[in-house]
């Protein structure tokens, strides 16, 4: 089984995964990954993903191999499908952070071992699983919860839509024209939301999205690989800043979430980020617990 998208999991599997993550959070050390090797392949930088995967695998007595893709023969043109077939012979799981989602699909196609998406241009499923765990911990439920996503309709937004729809939360998204979420993912999220009696809405303004929200969520306006568009993007997203004024439209005890890294003074101001509403570091911590659960499930019996 590969996890390239949040939607590779069913609602029931997510529920079980989160329960295991809660258990592993309480009992962090174990032998569940003893004798297992996980390759962590990075085409892009990372702080949280790398450290949480490496730490988590070590805590369960597995072996993590950090692989900077630029130091492999991939950088000299080795075909990705050969890379996948070779890795498949050595390791028990391949986790990869890639520029193009098609790279992950190619690895998955040529590996019998589970492949995990550690972020692509299309999705960031490990982030969403940690987000779901965090919301469940903080609010104790998914049903009836409204999430407002403000900003770029990027990988984080795509996965979050799917995660909310599977879990049964309503999500309202406000992003500028031309920066909307992926349309195929949006259609899928709407279908999933129908099954869970939830809604996925694209709204006209940040204020409308945030109205009565339990959670305000934002992400960088400039994702990895988009640095050349910085000037244009700073202009386009000017009105999409999460700040105290916008947050006044949310519920009084709203929670603020961000996958990190943030860009101070851009997508979120300190009056929100540093406030009692912000749960971003609990969210970051939960990457560790949920990814351990994911590996235990994938490398053991689901
Ligand atoms: N949120 C997240 O994936 O962080 P890193 O880029 O630091 O791994
Ligand atoms: N959307 C961001 C997420 C970083 C964790 C990016 O792709 O760079």
Give your account of this protein's structure.
With 302 residues, the chain is an alpha/beta fold. Helix content is 43%, strand content 13%. The protein has two domains: 6-123 and 287-299, Rossmann fold (3-Layer(aba) Sandwich), CATH 3.40.50; 125-283, Aspartate/ornithine carbamoyltransferase (Rossmann fold), CATH 3.40.50.1370. Strands 7-6-5-8-9 form a five-stranded parallel beta sheet. A four-stranded parallel beta sheet has the order 2-1-3-4, with helices on both faces. Norvaline (NVA) is lined by residues 119, 154-156, 219-220, 223-224, 259.
Q: What structural class do you assign from the helix and strand content?
A: alpha/beta
Number of helices: 12
CATH homologous superfamily classification of the largest domain: Aspartate/ornithine carbamoyltransferase
CATH class of the largest domain: Alpha Beta
Average pLDDT level? 97
Number of strands: 9
Bound molecules: phosphoric acid mono(formamide)ester, norvaline
Q: How would you describe the oligomerization state of the chains in this entry?
A: single chain
- The run of helices and strands is HEHEHEHEHEHEHEHEHHEHH
What fraction of residues sit in β-strands? 5-15%
Largest sheet: 5 strands, parallel
- Spatial strand sequence of the major β-sheet: 7-6-5-8-9
Cα gyration radius (Å): 19 Å
Question: Which CATH architecture of the largest domain?
Answer: 3-Layer(aba) Sandwich
Catalogue the unreliable spans: none
Terminal Cα span: 9 Å
Shape: globular
The structural domain count equals: 2
CATH topology of the largest domain: Rossmann fold
């Amino acid at each position: 089984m590969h996890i390239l998208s949040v939607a590779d999991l069913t609602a029931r599997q997510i529920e079980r995964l989160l329960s295991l993550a809660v258990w592993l959070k309480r009992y962090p050390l174990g032998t569940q990954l003893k004798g297992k090797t996980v390759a962590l392949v990075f085409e892009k930088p990372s702080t949280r993903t790398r450290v949480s995967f490496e730490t988590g695998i070590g805590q369960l007595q597995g072996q993590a191999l950090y692989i900077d893709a630029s130091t492999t023969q991939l950088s000299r043109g080795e075909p990705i499908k050969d890379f996948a077939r070779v890795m498949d012979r050595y390791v028990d799981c391949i986790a990869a952070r890639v520029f193009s989602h098609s790279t992950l699909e190619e690895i998955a196609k040529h590996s019998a071992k589970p492949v995990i998406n550690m972020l692509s241009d299309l999705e960031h499923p490990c982030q969403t699983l940690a987000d779901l765990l965090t919301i469940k911990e903080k609010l104790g439920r998914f049903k009836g919860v409204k999430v407002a996503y403000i900003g770029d309709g990027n990988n984080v937004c795509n996965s979050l839509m799917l995660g909310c729809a599977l879990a049964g939360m309503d999500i309202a998204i406000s992003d500028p024209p031309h920066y909307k979420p992926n349309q195929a993912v949006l259609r899928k999220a709407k279908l999933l939301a129908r099954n869970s009696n939830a809604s996925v809405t694209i709204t006209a303004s940040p204020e409308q999205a945030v109205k009565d929200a339990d959670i305000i969520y934002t992400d960088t306006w400039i994702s990895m690989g988009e640095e050349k568009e910085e000037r244009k993007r700073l202009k386009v997203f000017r009105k999409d800043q999460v700040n105290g004024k916008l947050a006044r439209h949310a519920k009084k005890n709203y929670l603020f979430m961000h996958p990190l890294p943030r860009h101070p003074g851009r997508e979120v101001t300190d009056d929100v980020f540093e406030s009692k509403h912000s749960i971003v570091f609990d969210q970051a911590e939960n990457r560790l617990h949920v990814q351990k659960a994911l590996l235990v499930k994938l490398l053991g019996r689901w």
